[in-house]
Amino acid sequence: MKSKIFALMAGVLTLSVFFTGCQSGGGNGAAKEYKPASNVDWYVASSPGGGSDIFSRIISDIMITEGIVDANFIVTNKTDGGGEVVRNEVAHMKGNKADNTLLTFNSGCLMPMVENTKNRASNFRVIAVMAVDKQLLFKTEHTKYADFAEAIEAAKNGETVVIGGSKGDDVATYEALVKEIGVSQDNMKYITYDATSDAITAGLGGHVDFVMSKPAAASEYVEANSLIPVLALSKERYTGNLADAPTLSEVGEYNDVEVPVWRSVVAPASMSDEAVAFWTEAFRKVSETERWQNEYIDKYKLIPDFMDAASATDYITEFEKNFKESKGIQ
Amino acid sequence: MENFELLLRGFSVSLTPINIGAAFLGAILGLIVGAMPGIGSLAGVALLLPLTYKFNPTTAIIMLGALYYSNMYGGSFSAILLNIPGDSPAVMTALDGYPMAKKKKRPGQALFTANTASCIGGTIGIIILTFAGPALANIGLKFGPSEMTAILLIAMTSISWLVGENPIKGIVITAFGILLASMGMDTLSGAPRYDFGNMYLLGGIPFTPFVIGTVGFSQVISLINERNNKTEKIDAKLSIKGSLLSRRELKRLLFPSIRSGLLGTFVGVLPGAGATTGSFMGYAVQKRFKSEEELGTGAVEGIAACEAANNAAAAGAFAPLLALGIPGSGTGAVLLGGLMLWGLSPGPLLFQNEPDFAWGLISSLFLSNLLTLAVAIAIIPFLTKILSVPTKYMIPIITVVCVVGSYSTTYSMYGVLVMLLSGIFGYFLQKNDYPTAPMLLSFVLAPLLESNMRKAFIISGGSLNIFFTRPITLVLMLVFFAMILIPLVRSIINKTKKGKVA
């Protein structure tokens, strides 16, 4: 009898192991089963030729030419409603399409989205953060202040100091800067330009005292001595021809100000786990290619900072939480 | 003189078979892209940019430069033949181009006028770019928010020359244009305005579908209503010879083209102005000068003034792009992106580090200008055949062109919806004798004026002093006040004189 019970238990155990094996195998099989459709839609919520457009086209090109993904990428620029329409569409996309749709999403996209709409980062599946950028302040030959410390003193004494920069993340960095310095926005003013190049134009013409820019946009002007870096909005100094710019803690008794400008890729909330795993792995592979390093990171002077789906989700969620708190948004 | 030598060196770069071929290809593609409403040079250059990666940078930029440049020619084709501007600078071309082609039944001459004026304006722009490009770019830098505010105020006064016979209607429609332009996200604060909770309206009313609707689709509605009333047959001349202008007409074309060429180049250099503003200003200034026929009725001077201005502005926009690395327009930004992808560093060092490239591009603009003119004139006989198409076929053709054009601006049905609604609105305006030009002009200029004026006030802390303490601004403000006060004073003096006589 004992032997029969033992045999029965052994049989049950074997079967359970077998089925468990099948289940887990099935799970793995499902993960392997996800294959992108022949055409993958990749949306960019800004115009052709801009930073997000270049980012998306370079990645899709690397994915195809390096054989990382066997699919065609249809990169579409949709700018309706300042990009909010396509962000909303992608967030709520359902069905098979959801597994084959990507959206370029940056900190500069998140801020107006959270401020002006009810759409939130939690409405997306975050696939990966690919790189991070930070800003500097530059002076020109027209700037009457020798360095930024002098400008802070002037602002504290009631003079008006004008900084020009781009929208979104630059504005957030400016707000963090004046808050840390402890001067009012009436004394250290900010003019929002449509693009960094417009802010640089204003700086070169002497219409603003300082220009806020990311390294890539300012690089050539620094080389020509038209722009002089005076403050690194970062926790550590830059290297190369930007190394002379001190961080805020070196300028005075302040904490460093750093508002990382991240570049990420997200997908519809209903994208399957298997598809998310596939895409996050594909983006990891891209981040490890030489082309990505040479043709994007080095060329545009960004900081390579790949985060997979899980860590990128935590990172963006935290960023959104801090941003909402700073703006008093519920 | 040094620049002339450098230009000759540039010709030695651009006049190689491969570069001539690239310029020729760019010219043809630009004409096609320009003639297709809604696509425009921005999308054209952006779409073709990846195709040029395999070329060497000089050949690639020559092709894209030619495409951008010839696009300005192509924009006038559909404006003249279908009353649908191919791109925003061609809006003003339609005002005289279409009546000349349709009512006067001289489509060949209308196209010939546009092409010749484009060539003259463009040549002036390129010559100025060659000899004074870097200096002009530096002058452009002096134009900050207060200077641009003064210029835009002057430009806004030019609307009064376009209001037509009924000033009240003109003012109402101008105000409506300003109201529409204020919709969408405020560029300075990022706050939404008049979005009524609608996500689409956060981005405002897109200009191209709006223009295609008010100018082009409204005409489809007119054709539907009027097709039974008249069966007008247009005997379009189909030969190049038949499209030539008389010597007298060439004379009429010359002075407006030269004036607009100079004005357009200056406007093109200014930050954020561009070919559309150049074209509007060229036409508005022409209103102040004598034209043999009234503008808006198919006058040679009207077509010449705006076409020469927009081509010159396109050339002028290359000055800040090449000399300072500053893109004057969206298309300039894409070209700039292209330069970076090819490993070149646009900016103040481009002329020093890459002289072959920079001068090769400038010399290729001369080449593209002539190549485009030759191609544009050669295809006049084929283009004019469009007007021989009977109305019953033209209605669906124009509708398709309007739908495709407005869709390709936004890649969504929102553009099409805006076009349809604007078409109905445009038809209403047409039926009630409201002029559309002031609305379109205020739609373009008002956001620029608002943004610059607010920036000026941020700099000055809300003080008006900024408009009277900077030398360039002061001169421009005096011009502005003179323009609004002189007619007023003149009218008061005339009234006083009449009173005394009585």
What would you say this structure looks like, in words?
- The complex is a heterodimer of chains A (330) and B (502).
- Chain A has helices at 2-33, 51-65, 84-91, 96-99, 107-116, 148-156, 169-181, 196-204, 215-223, 248-251, 273-287, 290-298, 309-327; strands at 39-44, 72-77, 101-106, 124-133, 135-139, 161-165, 188-192, 210-213, 228-233, 261-268, 303-307.
- Chain A is α/β, with parallel strands linked by helices.
- Chain A folds into 2 domains: 36-133 and 260-327, D-Maltodextrin-Binding Protein, domain 2 (3-Layer(aba) Sandwich); 135-251, 3-Layer(aba) Sandwich (D-Maltodextrin-Binding Protein, domain 2).
- Chain A has a 6-stranded mixed beta sheet with strand order 2-1-3-10-4-11. A 5-stranded mixed beta sheet of chain A has the order 7-6-8-5-9, with helices on both faces.
- Residues 12-31 of chain A have low confidence and may be disordered.
- With 502 residues, chain B is mainly α.
- Chain B is built from 22 helices and 2 strands.
- A two-stranded antiparallel ribbon of chain B has the order 1-2.
- The longest helix of chain B has 35 residues, at 107-141.
- The chains are: A alpha/beta (330), B mainly alpha (502).
- The interface between A and B is large, with 50 and 53 residues.
Mind sketching the topology for me?
The complex is a heterodimer of chains A (about 325) and B (about 500).
Chain A: H1 2-33, E1 39-44, H2 51-65, E2 72-77, H3 84-91, H4 96-99, E3 101-106, H5 107-116, E4 124-133, E5 135-139, H6 148-156, E6 161-165, H7 169-181, E7 188-192, H8 196-204, E8 210-213, H9 215-223, E9 228-233, H10 248-251, E10 261-268, H11 273-287, H12 290-298, E11 303-307, H13 309-327
Helix pairs in contact in A: 1-11, 2-12, 5-13
Chain B: H1 2-14, H2 17-35, H3 40-48, H4 57-82, H5 91-102, H6 107-141, H7 145-157, H8 167-181, E1 184-185, E2 192-193, H9 207-226, H10 247-269, H11 274-288, H12 300-316, H13 318-324, H14 330-341, H15 350-353, H16 355-378, H17 380-384, H18 391-410, H19 413-431, H20 437-460, H21 466-469, H22 471-501
Antiparallel strand pairs in B: 1-2
Helix pairs in contact in B: 1-16, 2-4, 2-16, 3-4, 3-14, 4-5, 4-6, 4-12, 4-14, 4-16, 5-6, 5-12, 6-10, 6-12, 6-13, 6-16, 7-20, 7-22, 8-20, 9-18, 9-19, 10-11, 10-12, 11-12, 18-19
